[in-house]
Amino acid sequence: MDVGNSGELAVPHRDAVAHGKIRGPRPFTGISRMSLNPEVGTGLETILTPGRAPKSAAEALDLAKTFLSAGADYLMFTGGDMPMEYYKTAFDEAKRQGKAINARPYGPILGPKEAAELGGEQPEPFGRTC
Q: How confident is the model at residue 73 (pLDDT cuts 50, 70, 90)?
């Protein structure tokens, strides 16, 4: 999953492997991930650069729509530090589009229980997207 090729490279890499242009295991990508503590940037980031910190539930929804429309196979979340409404709007959008959710819900706000309650319990998420 993401095999180190996230951001703008993720979808072209996935598609090149799928079409036999390059060799490799079949990758799946979330393109980027949402967290209030993303990696330190270089100043050259784009909307698809890994590690985005939404500032509102509306922005979390916009990011979810952007990642999914750019070709993400699933939405990714690291940590559990965003307000619950950020997760809810993004999880709802993933479900609406039939996409999976990849979360590392270790709190303090989103833990495993809360992630499951929002619909993050998809044991075989990629059967629908590939």
A: very high
